[in-house]
């Protein structure tokens, strides 16, 4: 995926960390583990520079503050809110 002109690296970083951590710490046998896939676009579109998250969408952000956003607002599945490239407009 290419983020193009959008400074959304914080969303990619934060989601990757959360997905991996959740997968590692599942309390089931390895063959029953499932991988959660979080939407990259959701936090980029839905957070603001204002209190309490202080995130600026395509203008930058912070993975740790995004965790507060998820804690308070919940997460969205990647397939329900697909990423749209800032460079090409392609989704997926």
Q: What does this 3D model show about the protein?
A:
With 92 residues, the protein is mainly alpha-helical. The chain has one domain (9-73). Helices cover 36% and strands 0% of the residues. It contains three helices and no strands. The chain has helices at residues 9-24, 41-46, 63-73. α1 crosses α3. The radius of gyration is 14 Å and the shape is globular. The termini are close together.
In short:
Helix content is 36%, strand content 0%. It has helices spanning 9-24, 41-46, 63-73. It is globular and about 40 Å long.
What secondary-structure arrangement, pairings included, does this model have?
Blueprint: H1 9-24, H2 41-46, H3 63-73
Helix pairs in contact: 1-3
Q: Work out the count of structural domains.
A: 1
Q: Which secondary-structure class do the elements indicate? A: mainly alpha
**C-alpha-based Rg, rounded:** 14 Å
Shape: globular
The largest sheet, given as strand count, sense and whether it forms a barrel, is:
none
Instruction: Tell me the fraction of residues in β-strands, as a range.
Output: under 5%
Q: How many strands appear in the DSSP assignment?
A: 0
Q: Would you list the SSEs in sequence order as H and E?
A: HHH
Q: What are the segments in which pLDDT stays under 50 over at least 5 consecutive residues? A: none
């Amino acid at each position: 995926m290419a983020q193009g002109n959008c400074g959304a690296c914080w969303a990619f970083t934060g989601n990757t960390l959360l997905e991996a951590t959740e997968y590692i710490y599942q309390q089931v046998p390895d063959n029953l583990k499932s991988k959660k896939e979080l939407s990259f676009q959701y936090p980029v579109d839905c957070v603001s520079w204002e209190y309490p998250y202080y995130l600026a969408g395509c203008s930058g952000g912070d993975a740790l503050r995004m965790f507060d956003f998820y804690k308070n607002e919940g997460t969205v599945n990647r397939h329900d809110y697909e990423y749209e490239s800032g460079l090409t407009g392609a989704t997926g």
